[in-house]
Amino acid sequence: MSQTGVITFKGNPMTLAGAALAVGSKAPAFELHYADAGIKTLTLEDLKGKPTILSVVPSLDTPTCATQTKKFNQELGAMAGSINAVTVSRDLPFAQARFCGAEDIKSIRTASDYQTHKFGEDYGLTIEELKLLTRAVIVLDSAGTVLYKEVVSEVTQEPNYAKALEALKSAS
Q: Which residues are catalytic?
């Protein structure tokens, strides 16, 4: 597996593995899973036709990941229907659904890369040492082209919400 960069987790250097994803490139196809009366599949093709924000987190069971998801949920409420918003982690789909229910998350859906880890590999977002996704935000246009990408250099810190939202709004 190729290495796409180095980030830190609580100050410790960690390696990002997978293919590098560049702004201006076509987003790689993916197959993620979510809970909805069983396990369902979400693909890149399902999201085409509307601008999309992919909020990528290591685990919803941690404070920063929960904050990131709740913040985007709050900020994206006014754009409901005109965009796609997905939080991606490797948490099990049932755990993601439980989190969304407990936190009243309605403006952003969750999807899991737990089965194949291919999303993390293809988007260059797998923390090699932890086998978790790193913290990142990706904005795609309605055709699936990458308009914006932020990989947060210290996993325990929050992303730049304003820049991500600006990129999403400019695509709408």
A: 65
